[in-house]
Structure to design on (595 residues):
């Protein structure tokens, strides 16, 4: 009995192998003009009255309402979506489904099954609400001899439901051996009632699809459907020409070891929480090949990104990172060349264009004070604009200050006109002025009379350099929480760089403080330090793992966005600590030296 069981098991594995999975979405499409050959013989399904029937049982040639049954024999194992299938079922409405031992054509939409949330392994040459008419039939036949047989399923003289004057003739071909899928279109006539059809196929569910769509190229030059609701137009002037053939082929399986290619980023530098996409270029492909994106802060220790298993990955970041892709085929893994995605300091990420306003013509901000602080910008008018109706004041002297968490401050703003005044402070330092960071200083000021407002710096405000924005607009015009970047037609906008402190004098003591970014890392003869904020009187040290200071460099001033070079000549290969100590904070980063 054990021997007999093993023989049966071997036979099952031989007939129904689960091969390297090739998603339907990866099938390769091409089209041409061939010859439409009507079937001269075969098994007829339905008759001239057929409408909405399903044919899932070869013993019931007139079909019925049952969407499941034993199926009709394909005549040979047909490999589709990584599995062998042996039976099919037919819908009057221009499509078929595949199955093993039985078939299930259950779908949310009988007329457009490819965009159904429940449809699986459906192939549609001309799916829509169709019905038979005089001389109509559905017919199938297995042509040729093994191993080159072809299953042909044909719809003859069908029409749109409830319409007259239509004549639709088309076929679905399943090819043995190559496992190619072909659609052929014969004489096609449509009445004046414009409509559309679904053309293509789905895999195990509707998220895996391969559809065609029409645009100015019509049916001869269709486009790839980017959603599972893509359609092809159907009207008297937009029809498949006789002999049009659509072909789909599964791509060749992957080859081990795979070629991983190089990683690319849609943006070289990103602001906090700004989306970007990493993708592969120059890589191999094919069924069975898998992908896993990884990230690293130093390009040495790598971590998998959860759910990042496609050819590309969309992400955001709040520190600079390296990205690469782990590419695997047949158990062999190779790693792509990594890409470095830098991180922009939040102070470089704010909206500064298309803000509008009318400083000279309507009125200006004349003074800004935060009482009992160094910020006292008086008598500015429109004389210090850095862009039309916009000023970005430097973080020095009377145009900057330090605010302490949980402290109360009195801000005083004077305008030369009757204005609505709004204030934003980017407390979370994410590079944007959020609605929760807004307050209204005044809805209607008296010209040349200070308007004051008391505010408290939140206890959870992020420490470090950030931005404060003031916007004015004619009283009565909207200037609310969501208007930090809105284009105005009156008033002006002023930005100030300030510092959030906790009262200890140290703004940060960990690597996420964002003082600088070191690159390249690993490095050999030199490393560049890119400042993410202005750094004053800083000391840069390179320290080995035994605590020995290997190199020291003093910096009087390094403005945000500027970089300095540190030579590494003479340092042995190894891991070092890169330390920056300044009044703006302390940052430690790991540095790998390769010599």
């Amino acid at each position: 009995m054990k021997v007999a069981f093993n023989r049966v098991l071997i036979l099952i594995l031989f007939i129904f192998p689960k091969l390297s999975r090739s998603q339907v979405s990866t099938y390769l499409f091409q089209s041409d003009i061939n010859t439409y050959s009507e079937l001269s013989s075969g098994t007829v399904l339905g008759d001239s009255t057929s409408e909405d029937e399903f044919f899932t049982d070869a013993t019931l040639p007139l079909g019925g309402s049952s969407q499941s049954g034993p199926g009709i024999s394909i005549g040979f194992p047909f490999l589709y979506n990584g599995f062998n299938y042996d039976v099919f079922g037919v819908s009057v409405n221009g499509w078929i489904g595949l199955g093993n031992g039985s078939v299930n054509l259950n779908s949310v939409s009988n007329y457009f099954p490819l965009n159904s949330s429940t449809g699986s392994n459906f192939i549609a040459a001309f799916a829509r609400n169709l019905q038979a008419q005089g001389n109509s039939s559905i017919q199938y036949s297995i042509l040729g001899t093994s191993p080159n047989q072809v299953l042909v399923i044909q719809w003859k003289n069908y029409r749109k439901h409830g319409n007259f004057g239509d004549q639709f003739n088309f076929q679905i071909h399943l090819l043995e051996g190559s496992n190619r899928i072909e659609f052929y279109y014969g004489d096609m006539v449509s009445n004046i009632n414009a409509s559309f059809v679904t053309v293509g196929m789905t895999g195990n569910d509707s998220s895996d699809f391969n559809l065609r769509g029409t645009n100015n190229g019509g049916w001869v030059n269709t486009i790839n459907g980017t959603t599972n609701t893509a359609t092809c137009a159907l009207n008297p002037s937009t029809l498949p020409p006789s002999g049009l053939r659509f072909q789909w082929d599964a791509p060749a399986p992957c080859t081990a070891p795979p070629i991983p290619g190089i990683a690319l980023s849609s943006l070289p530098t990103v602001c906090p929480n700004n989306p970007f996409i990493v993708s592969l270029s120059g890589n191999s492909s094919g069924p069975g090949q898998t992908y896993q994106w990884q990230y690293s802060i130093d390009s040495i220790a790598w971590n998998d990104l959860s759910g990042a298993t496609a050819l590309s990955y969309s992400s955001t970041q709040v520190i600079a990172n390296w990205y690469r892709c782990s590419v695997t085929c047949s158990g062999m893994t190779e790693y792509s060349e990594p890409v470095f995605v830098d991180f922009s300091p939040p102070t470089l990420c704010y909206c500064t264009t298309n803000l509008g306003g009318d400083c000279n013509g309507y009125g200006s901000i004349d003074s800004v004070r935060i009482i009992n602080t160094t910020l006292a910008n008086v008598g500015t008018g429109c004389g210090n604009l850095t862009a039309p109706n916009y000023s970005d004041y430097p973080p020095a002297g009377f145009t900057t200050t330090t605010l302490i968490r949980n402290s109360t401050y009195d801000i005083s703003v004077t305008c030369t006109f009757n204005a609505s005044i709004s204030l934003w402070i980017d407390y979370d330092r994410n590079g944007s002025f959020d609605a929760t960071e807004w307050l209204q200083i005044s809805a209607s000021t008296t010209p040349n009379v200070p308007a004051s407002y008391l505010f408290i710096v939140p206890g959870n405000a992020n420490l470090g350099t950030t931005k404060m924005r003031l916007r004015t607009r004619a009283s009565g015009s909207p200037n609310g929480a969501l208007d930090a970047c809105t284009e105005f037609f009156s008033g002006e906008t002023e930005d100030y760089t300030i510092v959030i402190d906790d009262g200890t004098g140290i703004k940060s003591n960990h690597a996420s403080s964002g003082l600088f970014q070191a690159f390249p890392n690993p490095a050999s003869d030199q490393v560049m330090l890119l400042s993410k904020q202005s750094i004053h009187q800083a000391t840069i040290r390179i320290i080995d793992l035994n605590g020995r200071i290997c190199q020291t460099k003093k910096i009087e001033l390094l403005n945000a966005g500027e970089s300095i070079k540190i030579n590494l000549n003479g340092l042995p290969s190894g891991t070092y600590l890169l330390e920056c100590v300044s009044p703006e904070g302390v940052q430690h980063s790991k540095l790998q030296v390769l010599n």
Remarks:
- The chain has four domains: 17-249, 262-344, 350-501, 511-593.
- DSSP finds two helices and 45 strands in the chain.
- Confidence is low (pLDDT under 50) at residues 1-21, 505-513.
- Residues 511-593 form a domain with the Immunoglobulin-like fold (CATH 2.60.40.3080).
